[in-house]
Predict the structure.
Amino acid sequence: MKKPLNPNMKLLIAVGAFVLLFFIPFPEPRVSGAIQEAFLMVSDYARQHVLLCLIPALFIAGAITVFLNQQAVIKYLGPKAKKPVAYGVAASSGVILAVCSCTVLPLFKGIYKKGAGLGPAVAFLYSGPAVNVLAIVLTAKVLGWQLGLARAAGAVVFAVVIGFLMHLIFRKEDEARLTDQGMFNGAGMEMPRKLWQDVLYMASMIGILVFMNWAPSRGSMGVWDFIYQFKWIITGVFAAGLVLMLILWFKKEELKGWLVSTRDFSLQIFPLLLGGVLVSGFLLGRPGHEALIPSAWVAAAVGGNSLLANFFSAISGALMYFATLTEVPILQGLIGSGMGQGPALALLLAGPSLSLPSILIIGGELGFKKTLVYCGLVVALSTLAGWGYGMIAPAA
């Protein structure tokens, strides 16, 4: 249980807020424009991502916590699970879940609280938004097949490597966490439904999340765009199946527990998420719009293929918020402004999996130390991968 802030810390925060309000030049056009961009970005996020992405993800997270068999999670994703199975399942999740860095957070919190080991949970956290089939294909079509292939390979490898390194670094702490919570003692073995019923129930909600957010390919992609034409019909089928299962298989008390769990996740995530989007919009603005930091500065800093350029690109991607697929047109514009191929890959590997809003929420779940290590691994590996790719990549 987290300790409340002591009075001295509260006073320090209040003084800091006063100093900021006193000295920030609000009448300056760039500052006032950045404030407007912050609220416009929050508005865009609320309209485009909360109803269709985040709310379904919160219900899935609540269901994972309440209904998913704890021993099954520990068996396949726990710290003592077989590594090829645990990391294979976690690293391939992005193939199914075409979600952004914020939408994957409730799902990550759900499986982590249910008993997943830190390593597989982090691999899932990274791969959810990074191993996105449509985003990878769109990258190849718009930015070149070499960059698309490098993104695909890097995302899968990073999910496994980063997750496994987190497991090694925090192994003792993670096993102590599960032992303290009674997750190694066989609790939760008896379930009111058969395994296949819970699998169908979870699959129906994942189907709703996936097909409700199915995006067009912006080009001719055959089956992908054919499915897009019928996305709402397919979503309706999954929704009808979900309603039928809820009526036939679940008790009223269980459904109440599900709603309570979903509510608790919402209260934990929404304030930090919206606050992070607000700050991100104030600093960097929406795609194609200026905020406090001029986009020309970013474009100038990521030219060439120096380690510094790749690092700056990776750290910028880790702080920016990318809705699903928006990183591709943003990069197209940056490459046109002189961005190197290496820094482009560094941003593609760091950006979709991290953002300032997601960092705040991860920190609330994992704590400062684990979050710092996770973000450091993502940025460091993205920097090195971008630098190495830039040495062999053809000119844009």
